[in-house]
Amino acid sequence: MIHHDPLYKDTPLILSVSGVDKSFDGFKAINDLNFYLEEGELRTVIGPNGAGKSTFMDILTGRTKPDCGSVVFHDSDGHDYNLAKLREFEINRLGIGRKFQTPSIYKSHTVYDNLVLSLDRPRGAFQSLIYRESPDDREIIHDVLKTIRLSDRKQDLAGSLSHGQKQWLEIGMLLAQNPRILLIDEPAAGMSDEESERTGELLLSLEKKHSLIVIEHDMEFIRQIARKVTVLHQGHVLKDGAFDKVKSDPEVIEVYLGRQGEKSATT
Amino acid sequence: MDPALVAFLMRIISRTFNTKLLTGILLIQCALCHFVVGQVESANWHSVFHGLILADGDEETFVKDLEVFGDPGISDLYEAWRTGDVYSFEQDREKIALRQMSSSSWIKISTGEAIELSSSDLESMSKLRASRGVRRMMKSLIDTLGLKAEDPIVRQESAMKLGLSQNSEFLPALRSRLEIETNKNVQTSIHEALAISLLANGSPEEILQSVETLGDLKSVPGRDFVQKLYDTEIESDRSESALSQASINTISKIEAYIGRVEFIGNFFRGLSLGSVLLIVSFGLAITFGLMGIINMAHGEFVAIGGYTTYLVQTWFISIWGIDSYAFGWYFVISLPISFAVAAVIGLGLEKSVIRFLYRRPLESLLCTWGLSMIMQQGFRLIFGAANVQVNNPAWLLGNLSVGGFNMSYTRLFIMAIAVVVVILTWLLLRKTNLGLHIRAVMQNRDMASSLGIPVNKVNSMTFALGCGLAAVGGSVLSQIGNVGPSMGQAYIVDCFMVVVIGSVGNLLGAGISAMGIGSIDQFLQPSLGPVMGKITVFFLIIIFLQWRPGGLFPTRSRSLED
Amino acid sequence: MEAWRIVSYSFKKPRRLTGINWMYLSDNKKEIGLFLMIGVLLMLIPGMNAWGPDSGVFAVSSFQVSLWGKYLTYAVLAMSLNLLWGYTGLLCLCQSLFFALGGYMMGMHLMLMIGERGAYQNVLPDFMVFLGYTELPTHWVPFYSFWFSSVAVLCVPGLVALVFGFLAFRSRIKGVYFSILTQALTYAACLLFFRNDFTFGGNNGFTDFKDVLGLDLNLASTQRILFILSVLLLLLAYVITSGLLATKFGKIQQAIRDSENRVSFSGYSTTSFKLIIFTLSAMIAGAAGALYVPQVGIINPSEMTPAKSLDVVVWVAVGGRGTKWGPVIGAIVVNLLKSFATRAYPDSWFIILGMLFVIVVLFLPDGIVGLYHKIRSKFPQKASLKAITA
Predict the structure, then answer these.
(1) How many domains does chain A have?
(2) A255 is in which domain, residue-wise?
(3) Which among A62, B24, B280, B418 is placed 20 to 30 Å from B502, CA to CA?
(4) Model ipTM?
């Protein structure tokens, strides 16, 4: 039985996380976490180091199993899936894609092949054996290549790309999957100002078509993309709401933004 | 403290300190004391026996006098008398008895001193034989001689021997000894002996009583006798009798006790095997945890320890000889030497090869495998392909017996060394500067480096430490196993398992899993045999990893690619 | 891992994924040329033995035919490891176990074919008579059939790999842990086969084979046939490897090597991919072992020691892992070196091998093939053997 947050009663939810605990060797990384995501929403998750952001992502993608609580994905056909019971690749096939903090790509494959392998096609072992590229597939890949600005490097090995380009390639791999929820961990890390601004634009353009959860540290970047912000603290949701409201909340300032936050809040 | 343990410690202390190095006044004094006391005492029984041999009609009084003594020399002399090695001889017009030790050496029976005889003396001697009457009187004296011996263990053994013979003749001797016996252990043995003997010789009440006593004493030798008694009861359709009930009771008590002893035995052997695994895999866990190096040549460092022990032994023999007190020290000395030799060789390897392999575990596995082949062949070229002989020092031979269960001193000593190694390693890691650096590098090498910790130096030291520990393990192994070119190979697979189960780089985990694998291995071996035991352990490990893939204490890394 | 550097020599020309296509070789004229050339060159050995001169430089003795036949089965073994280690990143240390299992399965058939011509003139194999068996153990009976044995050659190693792989991959054992566990598996199996009561001949294993399918194994013509079969197996293994690598399956295989997590977060069950490759590789190794036994004439547990498995790793590393012909080159070069060194310097062979290992790992991570490319890229002249790694 899923209890929807009364606030969102009228809007379709795509993800409900309720009452989740997770501890490692006695340390409570996630503590009674409740989190709801609407269809097509772009949500930014912030929080100080050790707030449990990465563990939260791990739980959503099946990398870590929660000790208790439920993590439910509401599919468009009305089915509910308990993500805590599924394995990583099954969760991914439901349409939940993840971009890691450090770029995770296939460095000995070409940029093009990286995208081919990420396409949302039958992914069983036998199907992979008989897979043939269709004109459709090629079109999708070329679109993605254009979006992530790597068209002219499609036949280069991914290992030879710059750090920023690798980040982009990984986002591109996510796009090729065409997932319903994108989980994006620090997309702007290691990017130049210009690159990170373009990343922000890209994420904004994905809103509505996909649901997004973005974890970020960079305040400038958050200011650019933030719609609704969730602040995690000690594995628990401290506050959520509009960015402006959250950043001026005294509790948030105390645990996370500190003095620096005060300053940025007044400017 | 357990008296047996005290005895063990005393023995180690006396054996190790009683060397040429300590030939001080104390030692001379002791020797003198012993000499004087021994002389007085032995003179006593010697003169009584002398009187008995030359007695004429009053043998009975001499035999009575002799009953006071418990010296094993009495039985020896009696045997000589009986077989005709005792002669009478007239010296200074006095008749004395002599004993022929060999064709040309003679001793005076009255004092035990040697005596020079001329050829004319030999002709005047006549052979003396014990008469039939004396032999009858002496028989029970000789049989129960052990009951009066000085050493309580001899008294215990003698009592059991008398009891197991189930000869009613010995009952009075046992009973009279029980009255004056003060040693608790000997008292127990005499009770046990009496009970066993009474099973055959006692009245029905006494038999019932004895069966119960044997059950209370958990007498392992008594088990078969009680079983026999029970079988006769069943055969004669008296399965309901009090005796058969008591027998069942006693048998089950004894069997439970035997089971317990076997359990402790397996446990003990498991712990000692675990101790070896522990010492060796500590080194492995440290090198992998700190440097990400899977050292396949670790087994060869174990062999270095074994060979160093061998060399130290050879060196001791050539200087002091194998029977000297000093030889007893060689093993103790070889432990730190093994550590040092292996650490220096390890340091050399680290500087020349290993440092290129940090954080590349698969490459390190292959490269160190190459090193392992080179080292093994090196051993063969230097020491030959066959195993070399490493002897146990005398003070490690024998068993410590606690509650009917024997623990060999060698294995106890190994466990003690493991405890020392664990404590020293812990102190090194927790209380020294080097340890602090090692832990810092283990957790985050880049951060440690940027904080000014000399990472390269720490790496070298750690690798040397790991190799040194392996060699200590090898030195210890030389006492319970073979020393040969491939001695390390037999243990290396087990040690890898220990490290995997204990979570790589986690010392506590390595300790627990070493003890666990050692014990399970020893528990399975009696029923499955060594090979099937090992294979079963391997499959248990696979199953364990299904349940806890990261081992006992998995480290959680935040980075994606481990 | 530096493996991607190797592959950078390929993919100069885009190639589309077209599913399984055994004719894909025709895409690349040079590669198919090399493939055929190697096939023809190898066939020269039995040809020279049959029709060539009896003495002189071109004489090929029957001993050399079976010696090279042995090398070829080793080469196939190396290729099977390369499929795992070179292309999937799984350093498997039980490849020699699969090889020996294949060998044992064929050996069982060969033992039964001896019949009453053994030393004890009993229908039972000699070692069974010696150990006091009165009848054939049940699991031996089907091995009277050659075809059953041939199927077992593939299925038994495959089944072992399937079960062990399932347990290992399911609990996410990878990297060094996988290597250590596979080494332990080999060790355990080796101990088991050393036992007399395991009904596989204990220490001595199987030997004194007489004939197979009615062909006398001591005849040169039979050895030639076995040699040709080995060449065919080698070429087949090559086609399977290349064919697989050209499909999306092969690309995922290499992707697992680079970033296993990304693969599973792209919706692929890495467990089943790894399991399939592990099983396939075990079957190829088993087939190689089955051809090894009749050519060498003996199989015993020393063929499945952990040390033998690491030998295979040396061959692949020396030749160049993650390259198509590297393992073949490595297996042949190291074994030639071995047969030379064990005769010339019997005492120092292990030292030479060990040094080779250390040097290759430290200075030649891509082996001989990598060295070739390094030299070629220093002297960019005419294009030639690029096909080797394509």
Answers:
(1) 2
(2) 6-95+179-266
(3) A62
(4) 0.84
